[in-house]
Structures are given as structure tokens and as C-alpha cells.
Design goal:
The structure holds 2 protein chains of 2 kinds. The longest helix of chain A has 22 residues. In chain A, strands 1-2-5 form a 3-stranded parallel β-sheet, with helices on one face. In chain A, strands 3-4 form a two-stranded antiparallel sheet. Chain A is mainly alpha-helical. Chain A contains 11 helices and 5 strands, in the order H-H-E-H-H-E-E-E-E-H-H-H-H-H-H-H. In chain A, strand 3 and strand 4 form a beta hairpin. In chain B, the strands form 2 sheets. In chain B, strands 10-9-17-16-15-14-13-12-11 form a 9-stranded antiparallel β-sheet. In chain B, strands 1-2-3-4-5-6-7-8 form an 8-stranded antiparallel β-barrel. Chain B is globular and about 95 Å long. Chain B is an alpha+beta fold. The termini of chain B are far apart. The chains are: A mainly alpha, B alpha+beta.
Chain lengths: ~300, ~325
């Protein structure tokens, strides 16, 4: 009897809590009502990113970062940039013979945060150098250099997609970790914090994989890859997905025999990781990615 | 007896503390006050003449080259070679012309690049301990962030009136290390007329081949006369001071033709910005603790003049 009374009260309270009134905020509240902005940019985001449960932020929020060198993007480049991300990341992973329609929905950043300029970082010499992505979590995908983006420029597209694939790889290895020791053992040279050691005067173009002072000479796909085993894995994937097979081969041809063996072993390691963990053929995804980039530039 | 005394005392204190008056320091609750403050700031920014002139010196080094009696040679400071810490010179100043609208949008131009047209953007008033002004979409003011200029685009409102707003950033505890002031543009005047005047002054001042500073006392005696200078150059961005820095150092050297044998090297330096009448220096060209020249009016072709406490300062071009 007593139990029934409690149940009745609980049900009553539950129904009482389900009023259908839209509770407006008190007019004196400092919390603002969300104003539905129907700008073209917001509509594009709603149509193309909201279905994946991804929020795209392009307005400045002073509390979003403690990096004093960052600033919000100019709005003129945003649509072109988001279209590129949609075509070369979301659509590629969502292809039936790659990840499938629901792949991104299962593993996706919750927010994409756009910044106008480079990701500037002060190294231990007090000099300002650029790094691809900040250390830390992957739930927010920061995209830098939006103001420099040009939808007709292959290099600009490549730089953008290097950031996207770099950040997304963080999420993938968080969801399904790789064998760090085995991957690390492929190297001949130990990892070093190259961002802190590189002086601004000799700081390389971090997105250029075949420059004369390229990291490929030491068996790394990029300078950032030399930092630690996670960066090594992430950058290997980012470079593979933003360069055609012939471009990667060109880099391999420049490297020494020993470095080439390391680079090929790393590529094979990733092919194996993607097949076993995600049932994705990485080389097919590389080809699709390359073809889609070419199509995009037409 | 003692117990009863304490009991009376407790009853007495308890009854005093039970007054039904509420001590109200403010008439309204905090959220109402913040909202009213925000509305007041938004109204001032956007109504009725909504275009403002914002002068921004992101970094002012008030101690650098502020002692005219200091012989830099004695300090073994090789001023022309020892410029690895160029940021010591500070940055600024720059002027932004901003039209604020009530819906949170704005238009902006600046003498940083001497824009012909304003570019659109947005701003927001943020609630922290007080209302702050934040520029929320990329615009010219954000050029002061990134790897140069050491500027900010989020500002705390220090004081506000109908025609003047003083801002600061969270970067400095000492507010004299930066200068951010907005003045409402005079009714009937266009921002372009200001910009054109600034552009003309800049072209003239930064292209003066040999700008010298001459300071005279109340009796008309020359007390300082520079014979060398170091400054940014409009058409030489790779020079010792890049074209956007806006800093000038007037030097007096015993033998400017032979720097190897120089035995004394004195100087006065300051950052500067342009205004309708000429040039404004911040922290100013300091002769001594009482004499600091800041506003120089253009009085003729390549001639700028300032006065302070009977002393005069002229910046002129000397043809060697």
C-alpha cells in the first residue's frame, strides 16, 4: 500500500514536470536567449554539419582559448572552407566502400572552431613558431589560417585538410588506440620536441613534406611527426590522406634507403590499423581523397 | 548572577540583529544592473552618430629612451646593431574608424592599411565583472593580434561617456603600458576626411629624409638638437624598424660621420600616431620630468611644432 502511494506520487510529479509551456527567460536574466540567426553561413552549417551533430563556431569567444595570438576569421572565406571540409573529409569517410554513411556520426568532434590566423606558439627560446594543432583533446577541432584560405588554390586546400585529418586522427586513436610501442620501434631516431628546438629563422614550412630540410630524411612524414609517437602516427595519416600516391612516392624517392624503409613500414602499419580497427582500406581512401581534391579544384 | 547577565546580553544582541530593514547598497539586483549597463553601452556606441575614432597603442614602453642625459655608449649599447629585441620599442599607434550598430554588427577601417572602404564585422558586449567590448568576427583590428603588434581585440571598458570611451585589456596591470581611447566623430564629418588627412601626414612624415628634433627653452636657447635618427620607413619594411611599428628615435651623436669613434650617443624616442593636426607621440618625447612633448601640430611643409611650459620642440627636415 505504502509502495503504491509512493509510486502514485512519483508519477504525479513526473507528469507535473512535463508542462508544454515554453518557458521564456526572465527579462532580467543575464543569460541570453539563443537567437536563431538565419545568415547564409548558419544555414549552410545547419544543413551540412548539424546532421553529424557537429557545431561550427566562427564567432569569437574570449573564453575559448588562452592563446593570445589567435583571432576570429573573416566571414568571406567561411563557406568555401566549410564546403571543402564537407567534400574532402565528411563525404570521403561517409562513402559506402570507405567508412559508410554513419561513420562520422559515430566518431566525430563535437565542435569545429575556426580561427583567422596561424596557430602561433612561443618556443622555449621565446620565439614565435607555427604548429599544426594544439596538444590536448580532440573533441574540439580547431582550424587555423581561415583568412588565408583560397578555394581555388591546391596548396591552401592541402594545408586545410592537413589540419582536418590531423585533428580527426586524434579522435580515431582515442577511440581505438594503436600499438604505440610497435609503431615507435619502427624509428631509427628518437623523438624530440622539435617545435621548441627549432629557431624561428630555421623553422621549416610545417606543411611542406619535401623541402630540403624535410623530416623524411630521418624517417618521419613531417617535422611535427618527430615530436612523439602520437604525433608520428597522426602526421603519417594526415600526409597520406592529403597527398596522392605519386606525391608520397616522390618523397620516398628523395629519402635514403634506410629512411624509405621506415616510411614504408609506417604506411603499412597504418594500412593494417585501419583495416583491423575500422574496416577501412586506407590506400583506397587515399586514392578517393586525391581524386576528390582534383575534382574540387576543377 | 553572571549566567543571567550573559543571558540578557544574548537576548539583547539577538533582538538587535532581528531588525526587519534590509540594507540595500544598490537599488537593483546584479543582473538588472548588468543588463542596464550593457544597454547603456550599446546605446552610446550606436546612437545617434555611431562612428567612432579609436586610437590604439598596443604596447608603450615608457622607460625606453626617456633619459636625454643617458650616454648610450657608456652603457655599451650599440643601438644600430643591438636590435634583437625590437619589440622593446613598442607598437603603435593606430587609428580605427568604427561604426557600431545596435544589432551587434559594425563597419571598420583603419590607418594601419589606410583602407578606402569599411569592412563589415560584428561585436559583442560580454558580461564579466563588468561589460566588456569584444570584436567577434575577423576584421582589421585583429591584424594587431597574431605574431606581431602584441595587440588584443577584447577590451574592458574603463570609463564611458557620450563622446569618449576609455578601454584597457587584461594584458597589463599597469594601464600606462597601452592606450585605447574612442572619440565619437564630430557630427557632419566623414571618417574618410580624417583618413585622408592621416595619410597625407604619414606620407610626409615617414618620408622625411633627415627628420631632426630641436628643443628650445623659454629663452629661445637650443637645449637639444638631434643629428641622427632611427625610425620606421614607409617604403622600407625590411629596415631596422618595420613600416608598421611607428616609432622614432631622435639621436645626438658627437660625430655622425664616424660611428666607430663615437663617444657619446644621446636620444629621445617615442611611438606615435597621426591625428587631424599632425602627430601624437606616446609616451611622448621627454626632455625632463616636467617637459614631455606629445602633440605636434603641422605648421608647414615638413615642419611639426609642440610647446610645453615655455619650451618648444620642432621636428623639421634638415638638408645635409
Amino acid at each position: 500500500m505504502k509502495r503504491n502511494t509512493i509510486l502514485v506520487i512519483v508519477f504525479f510529479l513526473l507528469f507535473a514536470g512535463c508542462g508544454d509551456r515554453d518557458m521564456a527567460l526572465d527579462e532580467n536574466s543575464v543569460i541570453r536567449d539563443v537567437v536563431e540567426n538565419n545568415s547564409f553561413i548558419n544555414k549552410y552549417i545547419n544543413d551540412n554539419f548539424t546532421p553529424y551533430n557537429i557545431v561550427v563556431r566562427y564567432k569569437w569567444d574570449v573564453n575559448s582559448t588562452d592563446n593570445a595570438y589567435l583571432y576570429p576569421p573573416q566571414e568571406k572565406n567561411i563557406i568555401g572552407l566549410l564546403k571543402t571540409i564537407k567534400s574532402l573529409w565528411l563525404d570521403v569517410y561517409s562513402r559506402p566502400k570507405i567508412g559508410g554513411e554513419d561513420f562520422i556520426r559515430k566518431v566525430a568532434p563535437r565542435e569545429i572552431y575556426l580561427y583567422g590566423g596561424k596557430n602561433i606558439y612561443k618556443n622555449n627560446r621565446g620565439e614565435l613558431v607555427e604548429i599544426i594543432a594544439p596538444s590536448g583533446g580532440a573533441i574540439v577541432m580547431p582550424i587555423y589560417r581561415v583568412d588565408d584560405f583560397d578555394v581555388n588554390n591546391k596548396e591552401a586546400i592541402r594545408i586545410l585538410m592537413r589540419m582536418v585529418h590531423h585533428n580527426y586522427a586524434k579522435l580515431l586513436i582515442e577511440a581505438k588506440p594503436f600499438d604505440r610501442q610497435a609503431f615507435s620501434n619502427l624509428n631509427q631516431y628518437v623523438y624530440k620536441r622539435w617545435e621548441e628546438e627549432a629557431t624561428s629563422a630555421y623553422h621549416p614550412n610545417i606543411y611542406d613534406i619535401t623541402s630540403s630540410n624535410g623530416a623524411y630524411r630521418y624517417g618521419y612524414y613531417s617535422h611535427a611527426a618527430q615530436s612523439n609517437v602520437e604525433q608520428d602516427f597522426i602526421e603519417t595519416l594526415s600526409v597520406i590522406l592529403t597527398h596522392s600516391r605519386s606525391e608520397v612516392d616522390e618523397m620516398l624517392a628523395k629519402s635514403s634507403l634506410n629512411a624509405r624503409k621506415i616510411l614504408i613500414a609506417k604506411s603499412n602499419f597504418l594500412v593494417d590499423y585501419f583495416k583491423k580497427n575500422w574496416d577501412i582500406n586506407l590506400l583506397r581512401m587515399q586514392s578517393v581523397s586525391s581524386i576528390e581534391t582534383q575534382k574540387f579544384l576543377r | 548572577m553572571i549566567r543571567r547577565f550573559f543571558l540578557y546580553m544574548i537576548i539583547l544582541f539577538a533582538s538587535i540583529s532581528c531588525r526587519d530593514e534590509q540594507l540595500m547598497i544598490f537599488e537593483e539586483n546584479p543582473s538588472t544592473r548588468i543588463l542596464k549597463r550593457e544597454e547603456m553601452v550599446r546605446n552610446i556606441l550606436s546612437y545617434p552618430d555611431n562612428t567612432w575614432k579609436m586610437i590604439y597603442f598596443p604596447k608603450i614602453n615608457k622607460n625606453l629612451y626617456s633619459d636625454i642625459n643617458l650616454n648610450m655608449i657608456n652603457l655599451e649599447q650599440d643601438i644600430f646593431l643591438n636590435l634583437r629585441n625590437k619589440e622593446d620599442f613598442g607598437y603603435g599607434g593606430y587609428t580605427f574608424f568604427i561604426s557600431f550598430y545596435k544589432d551587434g554588427t559594425l563597419k571598420m577601417a583603419s590607418d594601419l592599411h589606410f583602407n578606402e572602404e569599411m569592412t563589415s564585422g560584428s561585436y559583442d558586449l560580454i558580461h564579466n565583472t563588468d561589460v566588456s567590448l569584444s570584436f567577434t568576427s575577423g576584421n582589421i583590428i585583429h591584424k594587431l593580434k597574431g605574431s606581431r603588434f602584441e595587440g588584443r581585440a577584447d577590451f574592458i571598458i574603463d570609463s564611458i561617456s557620450d563622446d569618449k570611451i576609455v578601454l584597457r585589456t587584461s594584458k597589463y596591470t599597469d594601464t600606462t603600458n597601452e592606450f585605447i581611447v574612442l572619440h565619437r566623430i564630430e557630427k557632419g564629418k566623414s571618417w574618410k576626411s580624417y583618413m585622408n588627412a592621416y595619410k597625407k601626414t604619414r606620407e610626409e612624415f615617414e618620408n622625411m629624409r633627415e627628420p631632426y628634433l630641436i628643443i628650445k627653452n623659454a629663452e629661445g636657447d637650443t637645449v637639444f638638437r638631434s643629428n641622427e635618427f632611427l625610425r620606421n620607413q614607409v617604403h622600407n619594411p625590411t629596415g631596422l624598424l618595420d613600416s608598421y611599428r611607428r616609432y622614432i628615435l631622435f639621436l645626438k651623436v658627437d660625430d655622425p660621420t664616424n660611428f666607430v669613434k663615437v663617444t657619446y650617443l644621446h636620444g629621445i624616442g617615442s611611438g606615435f600616431s597621426y591625428n587631424e593636426n599632425g602627430i601624437n607621440f606616446k609616451p611622448g618625447l621627454k626632455y625632463n620630468n616636467e617637459i614631455l612633448f606629445d602633440d605636434f601640430n603641422r605648421i608647414g611643409e615638413k615642419r611639426y611644432h609642440a610647446e610645453k611650459n615655455g619650451f618648444t620642440a620642432d621636428i623639421i627636415e634638415i638638408k645635409k
